[in-house]
Amino acid sequence: MRVVIAEDNALLREGLVLLLRSAGHEVAAVAATGPEVLPLLLAHRPDAAVLDVRLPPGFRDEGLRAALAARERLPELPVLVLSQYVEQTYAAELLGGGARGVGYLLKDRVGRVDDFLDALDRVVAGGTVLDPEVVTELMSRQRRGDPLGALTPREHEVLRLMAEGHDNATIAAALVITERSVHKHIGNVFLKLGLPPTDTGHRRVRAVLAYLNA
């Protein structure tokens, strides 16, 4: 896997390079500022991009903007965005439009090597991955009357695991239920969130977006 990294913190940037290389991946290029990112992605056309949300010169959302711009030019580019904090607006914008092959992780997750590499693999495979802490924070912000209010506790658990990017088999194992039960719960989630069967390809992503838009 060829990866482009954008991270302004030199220590974390070099740590990512070493981590990815030790896992057998190729680091095609590294960037330390926002303006560097898009030209590098277009030049190298990597298998994945790992980008910090906030980069110089403004330390606002330069990394996210570069990711969104890159996906306009390279729609199939898998992007894994790293953030220091849970920033709901950034997560919603990244996942907007039924996006596939995207992930949003807190930087602490990088230190959990297996979790980070697993998330990267799932994003490259076309999955959508949200950091468990991001999901927990978003769930805590739910208000009465939001679309998720009709879900049962079990359906909430299933949706939370879906939001973390897990497939049905993994969800079944985590909740100690059958895959058939998982399939039924997911069907109920789709029904209660008003996601029609004709939108099969994006319903999982749109269900995750319900967290962000609640």
Automatic annotation (TrEMBL):
SMART domains: HTH_LUXR, REC. Residues 2-122 form the Response regulatory domain. Gene3D superfamilies: 3.40.50.2300. PROSITE patterns: HTH_LUXR_1, HTH_LUXR_2, RESPONSE_REGULATORY. Keywords: DNA-binding, Phosphoprotein, Transcription, Transcription regulation. The modification 4-aspartylphosphate is found at residue 52. Signal peptide: none annotated. InterPro entries: CheY-like_superfamily, NreC/VraR/RcsB-like_REC, Sig_transdc_resp-reg_C-effctor, Sig_transdc_resp-reg_receiver, Tscrpt_reg_LuxR_C, WalR-like. Residues 144-214 form the HTH luxR-type domain. It comes from the Bacteria. This is LuxR C-terminal-related transcriptional regulator. It comes from Streptomyces carpaticus.
